[in-house]
């Protein structure tokens, strides 16, 4: 009985050895992870400094008197729908009938400025999106020519739907030379719901002289950091290093591309689509009466196009990070890396995604966004799934070849 209850000396020694080996393995893995974390610590610190600095640094300074500040309903140039105001708090309500509610404020002297910063706080409750994504509660800055015709271009400050608490938003707009006057617009164009607006303000601004110096400093630091980690992480020794490098460069080019270039390419695409539509042959059907000519593109058409551009932007984020993660994982599989290496790779790509968002603060008209980072993570998750499926498929094919050869 005692022999059955008490372990034999040999068995006890084997148990001690097994626990000792497990402890040593865990200790080695922890030390390895701590070493890798220390290796990446400089990049993480610079990332935190970049986000904190550009989160608090205002690259613009006032360049003139305030054009609009906490206006009342009496200051409005035009009203549409159910609009009320109390002490600078505007309430725009759209009933079940869906009649749009809008308030237009004319800003005299705005077009003599180069840049105007528009600010407002917005709160929405049960705002139901309309037929298009832009049919919701929003704040805009619209510019018109001498014929009172809206000039297409970037105009949105914020667009909200569903139910959300108070949030402050702002954006800077370049005044177009062909514009005759400019309106600050708050609107609720959803199917139904209520939107509140306050702290409405518009002011001429200009870039601070220190912005160029700070941007050069952070750009230099990140270039040095990139060169350091390229050597330290031996990226040039990876199996698929050329494809990985090209993918990473494409992501960096997209992150650092000025908003004006994106807008210019969008305008070019819009013109090409418009020309293609105009060249489309007419229908052979003979109608009893000629149809009236279609109106020129207006604000509604421009918003639809901007929505498509936004979808393309998100798709680019998703596909580029999905391909990057898949290439790095496949390269690791070709190198026969340990399973723990894949977790390290995922962490590295997440840091890289955060860095690309932070680098957008170095441009004139772009900033880091949580939504873009979320899209990057979704792309990485898709890459993981595709990698697991592809690797399993390759193993199956190899087994079939091996069995058939035998």
UniProtKB/TrEMBL annotation:
Key word Lyase present: no
Q: Which NCBIfam families match?
A: vanZ_1
Q: What is the lineage of its organism?
A: Bacteria, Pseudomonadati, Kiritimatiellota, Kiritimatiellia, Kiritimatiellales
Protein name according to UniProt: VanZ-like domain-containing protein
Q: Which organism is it from?
A: Pontiella sulfatireligans
Domain of life, source organism = Bacteria
Q: What UniProt keywords are attached to this protein's entry? A: Membrane, Transmembrane, Transmembrane helix
Q: Does the keyword Membrane apply?
A: yes
Transmembrane domains' residue ranges: 37-57, 212-231, 243-262, 316-334, 341-359, 379-398
